[in-house]
Design brief:
160 residues; alpha+beta; Alpha-Beta Plaits; five-stranded antiparallel sheet; 4 helices
Length: 160
């Protein structure tokens, strides 16, 4: 089993020193799912929600969250992201929004946390903007789908 990397020899939490790692192009893809009542979904899909364009606000929130990941997650490195994309797939049959966040950076460390944070905050923003009509929404399936770059190379969910 691999060792946890945020512990020093004494077992104390620390920020990992990436100073000796090579700078390389890195990318991570994370997803999340927001399940809601059909009427809530229709309001969102039609852009008829009283609070405005829910998906545009959620996209901006996800991007901002990825940029602030180092401030939100203890021991996470602050990165100069080269790009962040947050996209949505509306599924009327399942009455849900599928969120996909892609983060890229040229760095000594990966962007998995940034992608996961972007997907999570986009989902939370959808919840926040729609909760007045549907407090029973469920945010689920937050997961890293793939990462590329760095010493460990490429990883994809389902290929482990």
């Amino acid at each position: 089993m691999a060792e946890l990397t945020h512990l020093d020899a004494a077992g104390t939490a620390r920020m990992v020193d990436v100073g000796d790692k090579a700078v390389s192009q890195r990318e991570a893809v994370a997803t999340a799912l927001v399940v809601m009542q059909p009427e809530t979904f229709r309001l969102l899909q039609q852009g008829a929600h009283a609070k405005g364009d829910v998906l545009t606000v959620a996209r901006i929130a996800g991007i901002q969250a990825a940029k602030k990941c180092g401030d939100l997650i203890p021991l996470c490195h602050s990165l100069m992201l080269s790009s962040v994309a947050v996209d949505f797939e509306l599924d009327p049959e399942a009455s849900c929004v599928r969120i996909r966040a892609v983060c890229r950076v040229m760095s000594q460390t990966g962007v998995e946390m940034e992608a996961l944070t972007a997907a999570s905050v986009a989902a939370l923003t959808i919840y926040d903007m729609c909760k007045a009509v549907d407090r029973g929404m469920v945010i689920t399936d937050i997961a890293l789908q793939q990462k590329q770059g760095g010493k460990s190379g490429h990883w994809q969910r389902g290929s482990e």
